[in-house]
Amino acid sequence: MTLKRGREPANEGEGDGDGDDARARASGTRDAEEHRGVRVRAEDDVPTTKDGVDFERDVAKDEAANAVARHYSSRSNQSHGERRKSVIYRLRCLNNWIKSTQLSSRVRENDRVMDLACGKGGDLKKYARAKVGFYVGVDIALESVRRDAVKRYNGEHANEFPAVFIAGDAFVVDLAEVLPEHQRTLDVISCQFAIHYSLSTEQRARRALRNVCKMLRPGGYFIGTTVDSNVLVRKLREADGLAFWNPVYEVEFDDTFKDKTFPASKTGGFGIEYTFTLADAVTKCRECMVPKDVWVSLAAEYGLELVEWQNFHDYVHSQLHGKETRERAGGLWSQVMGDEGENTLTDEEWEAAYLYCTFVFRMSGSPESAASAVFNRKPVPEKRKIEQSDVLVLEGAA
Q: What are 14-23's pLDDT values in tens digits?
């Protein structure tokens, strides 16, 4: 096979990565009745001040997240032929391959999973192939969930697993308040091309991690993809100005970081913003860096132990050449990328892929506690058709 050395674009096909008033809605089922009339609070036990620094929720940061949500909800679905014409088609294929290998390595048959930032439901087929036992899809983009994800779930090749869909900002609300017990104690939580939006403030980052740790069983995995901040800083310092680009993408910092340094005393590791443009996907979208040491340290406070952190370039090579992974990864490569290098990335796309990394965290706990959590959790509801009115609409949905 041939291989040359994103924020995930809104790719409307299988494996697309996606990447109102806040009021919980309910269906007619017993489970949904538990949520009727619930107003989900943004407040939690995160301190509002720490060492004199105010951590009250920043309205401007929330509006930035809402803008991203509205952008993805407004994008029209494309046919496979239209997607193939995109200058980032092969990059999209690579992103889907990376997500597929992550899921195939961590998700087991009958696992209960959460797709955090599920977007239009583009990864539903991946979970179907994994034969999961229960699925929770969460995204801030209301119409992406209510219109597209639900339609995909109920589609011609309807998924065999029961599911719950939630529209709301998982970096603001407490998901444990709206999900009954049998919809928690999950085996795997996946967050693809989205966790960097939680790093706008410490409070949002903590809420994201608190939701993960409350949802995961002991020994469960938190997996995903995000921006590689080490690469962003390196490329920024190599640039003449505050921007770097190629024909596929552009990253631009503002004068706040004109000295090209990011001391902890200045940022705390949060709110290090830049604008990102990706051809055929987003234009000047505000995103945040994810300093690895800050994120790993914060995750550890919530019992999440780092298992793996790899740049996309390193991840691809380790998967395709690793003794334990190459057979499975190679098979998926042929399925997603095409045989004989059919979808070999351009140099520009491969450079764009270099901006991202994969991560895997494991929820702390002994094998005994993990086995006990699985054995004692309640059965999930039966699979049924999901109506748009069944979508739980929480605070932050846009």
A: 544 444 332 2
- Total count of residues recorded for the chain: 398
Partners of 251 in beta bridges: 244, 276
> Which of 104, 3, 7, 90 is closest to 316 using CA atoms?
3
**Average pLDDT score over residue span 260-274:** 92
Q: Could you report the per-residue pLDDT of 151-189, keeping only the tens digit for each?
A: 999 997 778 999 999 999 999 999 999 998 878 899 999
Contact 162, 382 (CB under 8 A): yes
Q: Are 177 and 40 in contact (CB under 8 A)?
A: yes
The whole-model pTM stands at 0.82
**β-strand partners of 186:** 216
Task: Give 17's contacts (C-beta < 8 A, 6+ positions apart).
Answer: 8, 9, 10, 11, 92, 95, 96, 99, 119, 122, 123, 192, 193
In the beta sheet, which residues pair with residue 116?
138, 191
Query: What domains are defined for the chain?
Result: 30-393 (3.40.50.150)
Helix or strand (DSSP H, E) at 25? none
Q: How much is the pLDDT for 343? A: 61
- Tracing tokens 């087991």 back to the chain, one arrives at 108
Q: How far apart are CA 193 and CA 81, in angstroms?
A: 24
Give the sign of the dihedral formed by CA 397, CA 121, CA 176, CA 205: negative
For 23-33, letters b (16+ CB in 10 Å) and e give bbbbbeeebbe
The residue written with tokens 């520009």 in the block is 348
Dump strand ranges (E) for the chain. 49-50, 53-54, 112-116, 134-139, 163-167, 186-192, 216-227, 243-245, 249-252, 273-278, 282-288, 304-311, 356-363, 392-393
Which DSSP state fits 149?
Answer: I
Nearest 10 degrees: CA dihedral of 390, 195, 264, 56? -10
DSSP 51-72: TTEE-S--HHHHHHHHHHHHHH
The arithmetic mean of pLDDT across residues 374-395, rounded, is 94
